[in-house]
Design brief:
By secondary structure, the chain is an alpha/beta fold. It is built from 12 helices and 11 strands. About 7% of the residues have low confidence.
Amino acid sequence: MTILRTLCLALFGLLCLCTTAKAVEEPKVTLVLSDDTPLYQNFAASLKQDLSERLQMDVLHRVEDFSSTAAAPDLIVTVGLKAANWVAPRTQTPMLATLIPQSQYAELSRHRPRGSATSALFLNQPIERQIDLLQAALPESRKVGLLHSPEIKLDIDELRSVLARHGMTLISRSSPSPDTLHKDLEFVLDRSDVLLVIPDNGIYNSNTIRNILLQSYRHDVPLVGYSQALVKSGALCAAYSSPEQIAAQTSVMVSQFFKNETLPITQHPQFFSIAVNSDVAKSMGISIPSAESLKNKIAKLQGGRR
């Protein structure tokens, strides 16, 4: 019995060592949310469900909870621009920034410590998808308005060129301050068939969006946006990616990081949905296909370019 008991204890000790080694080797990810609003909470819940069996994940619900003095994980995933801006200069740990505007990525990268690995999954849809939506929803529109703040780094020439290939003209204007917003918006609306809305908090925020929508209605110019919330507020339609869709793509990017030991390149959302405000369409006298029909048309346009 003594020999058997000794063997059992030895086997138990070996099992404990193996389990401990496995735990130590298990990849560790820290998820940093910009705040605890439902959008970010839904993202966190979806990502944790996708990845929890493959790695250890800690979720920080406030950016202030992140500390550079804490034990470094293998990868940090930030959710939203606030979290990305907070984490970027404070650690050399590889960082994947999600739900940030593409226009902010270059500035974010400049604040990272030298040699730090950084990548992103952008908030905004790829421009070709936005243009496909414009064509599917408003096939007669040719003059596309764009209002942006100076801080947003846009390649206007590239956008103008892409639109031109689709038979459209870009009417763009930079609005430097709230004092000139009304005048700048008037300039764009007077010359446009549709206003393309991009993620730009300097222009489109809770203080301005109501007046922008009212101004656009008076000019009979519909807004095509990038979020479901904007459509609910009064935009005609939008191509957008839900928190769950972004989380699914983030899960793939995280898995690629641990498989290849390097971050994948920056990406736009792959999975997307369409939202349509039928009340706005009716009030503006616009005949617009259903959200499902618009998505099918966009898929055909995308397929034709492959």
